[in-house]
Fold this sequence. Notes:
InterPro entries: Znf_put (IPR027383). This protein is mostly helical. The chain has helices at 2-13, 21-30, 35-52. Zinc ion binds at residues 3-4, 7, 30, 34, 36-37.
Amino acid sequence: MGKCKHITRLLSDALDRSLTTGEWVAIRLHLPTCSGCRNYRKQIRLLRVAAHSVSGIAAPGTVNSDD
Ligand SMILES: [Zn+2]
C-alpha cells in the first residue's frame, strides 16, 4: 500500500506549493476510501489553520470534500 504514503506526501506538499490537477484528483479519489489519510489531512489542516490564523492568508489548494 504505497498509495497512502503518496497521498499523505501530497497533502503535506499542498501546504507548501500548489498541487497539480492530477494530484488533487488522486487525493479526492483516495480520501473517501481511507480513514487514515482523512485523519492525516485533518491534522495537518488544523496545523495550517493555526499557522495561518495570524496572517489571515488562505493557503491555496484547500480540499473541500467530506466535512
Ligand atoms: Zn490512505
